[in-house]
Each structure stands twice: as structure tokens, then as C-alpha cells.
Amino acid sequence: MSPRLPNPRLKAQVFAALGDETRLQLVVRLSDGRQHSIAQLTADSALTRQAVTKHLLVLKRAKIVQSRRSGRQSLFELNPQPLNELQQYLVQVSQHWDEALNRLRLFVESES
Amino acid sequence: MSPRLPNPRLKAQVFAALGDETRLQLVVRLSDGRQHSIAQLTADSALTRQAVTKHLLVLKRAKIVQSRRSGRQSLFELNPQPLNELQQYLVQVSQHWDEALNRLRLFVESES
DNA sequence: CAATTGAGCAACCTCCTGGTTGCATATTAG
DNA sequence: CTAATATGCAACCAGGAGGTTGCTCAATTG
To answer: Is the residue at B62 inside a domain?
Structure first.
């Protein structure tokens, strides 16, 4: 009864992308549904523009974020799909744990 | 209308703990609801016992896993609570994005 | 009791991450 | 046209992550 789960490497990549405070805050920031330039996202950060850029690229590699160039600025927006998939993944693991525990409980009871 | 979200640093820590393929597989393994010794968890891994131990400690620091000593072995079991909290967190971010986008859509329509 | 097994601890190594500075380039504003 | 702005790219650096080996010790097993 092992859980039917998607490629752990890909999931781990998305988890890792969210596993940094700065990047997590960027995601929250971008959850306003709008597009933001790198300069905007850097404005209230203690980091340099280049550091923020690197973080955005990590998010982009994990497909959590998309970007397009507009004039001299490049605009980033959130893509919630990977987040939803991750959420589903966590539900599955948690459910599997729940069901397994119930089976164990039944088994113990049938022993006594 | 910024999202009401818990401490991002703590959440990032949990995400980071799951952001490694080996650790994610350990979590899946432990989602069978049973307790496993380090030796058991090492058995089907290409890594050394010491490496697996380190990964387990990372999971423990994030409270995803608990351990107790039993004789000469130390037994690890899953604690699903942080996973559930993370799941809720993702729901919130996703919802916030959704609502924000709806508001933007309404605004655009009211302009035309 | 002797041998085996399970685990902890420490030192060490390599590579990646997260950050910086510096410079070049394209676009927009005055 | 010139100045200012937004970004890209590269080199560099320190520290942490992930892994190993080696050794010791406690608990089981025969």
C-alpha cells in the first residue's frame, strides 16, 4: 500500500525553490496577481537588484513564476499551478499517513 | 489587501526541509505510519547511515519527524502537522492570487 | 563472554548557494 | 542629444549542505 506519488525530484525542486525566506516573500508579493519589475521587487528588499534577480530565476526554473520583457523592464508574474500541485502532493502524503494509521489501529484491535 | 500569513521564516524552513529528494523520499517512506530505525531507512538508500542520519535531523528540526530511543536503535516517525500547515499556507497564497485577479478583472471591466 | 549490530560524534572534503561588485547595454525621459 | 533608469552578465567570495571515513560506545545475540 505505498502511495502513488509523482516524481519526487521535481517536487523537491519546487519545495526547494520555496525554501528560502526571500523567495517565499517574493511569491507572497507576487500573489497580488499583478506584474512586477525587478526594480519594484528590489525596492523594499535589503538585497541588491542582482541578488533579487537570482532568486527570481530560481522561482522561474521551478515554473512558479513567469516573466516577459516590456521595454527596458522585465515583468514577473506568479503562476499558481505548481503551488496547487504541491498542495495536492501534501494532501496525498497526509492522507496516506492517516489511512495507514487507521489500518494499524484496526490490526492492533483484532489482535487483542 | 495583503494576505494574512504566518511567519515566512518558519514556513521557509519547512519548505527547505522538504526541498531535497532524499528527505522527501524519507517522508514518503515514513508516511506508512510506522516507526523506522535509522538502519531500516538506510537499507534501501545508496547513502551511508551517517548521511541518512543528517537528513533525519534536518526533518526533526523542522518538526516533520519525531524520534525516540528504544534499546540500541532510535526510531523515527512522521508528524503530519507541519505538512498540513504547509498545505494550508499554499491554499492561502493561491486563494489570495485568485481573489486579487478577480478584483483586477472587475476593475478593468468597469473602465471600459 | 564474544561477536555483532545500531547508533553517535568528529573531522574532513567538495560543491552549490546566496550574496557582492563592476561593467556593458538598451530603453526612456528631459 | 544627454542623462537617467532597468536590466544582463561575469567574476568573485564566504559559508553552508551533503556526503564520506574512522572511531567509540551501548545493546543484543549466540
So the answer is: yes
Residue A23 included in any domain: yes
Which grid cell sits at B24? 522527501
Task: Tell me the residue range of the domain where A54 lies.
Answer: 8-111
Distance of CA A85 to CAs A11, A15, A24, B24, Å? 9, 11, 17, 15
Indicate which CATH number applies to the domain containing A96. Answer: 1.10.10.10
The ipTM value here is 0.93
Let me know: does B18 contact B90? Beta carbons within 8 Å.
no
**CA A66 – CA B97 distance, rounded (Å):** 14
Question: CA A84, CA B93: separation in Å to the nearest integer?
Answer: 10
Stated in angstroms, how far is B10 CA from C5 C1'? 38
Is the CB of A31 less than 8 angstroms away from the CB of B87? no
Residue contact A18–B12, C-beta within 8 A:
yes
Lay out the sheet containing B73-78: strands in order across: B36-37, B73-78, B65-70
Q: Considering only CA atoms, which of B41, B44, B63, B61 is closest in space to residue B52?
A: B41
- Look at residue A2 and tell me if it is in a domain: no
Q: What is the pLDDT of residues A63-102, one digit of tens each?
A: 999 999 999 999 999 999 999 999 999 999 999 999 999 9
Tens-digit pLDDT profile for residues B52-77: 999 999 999 999 999 999 999 999 99
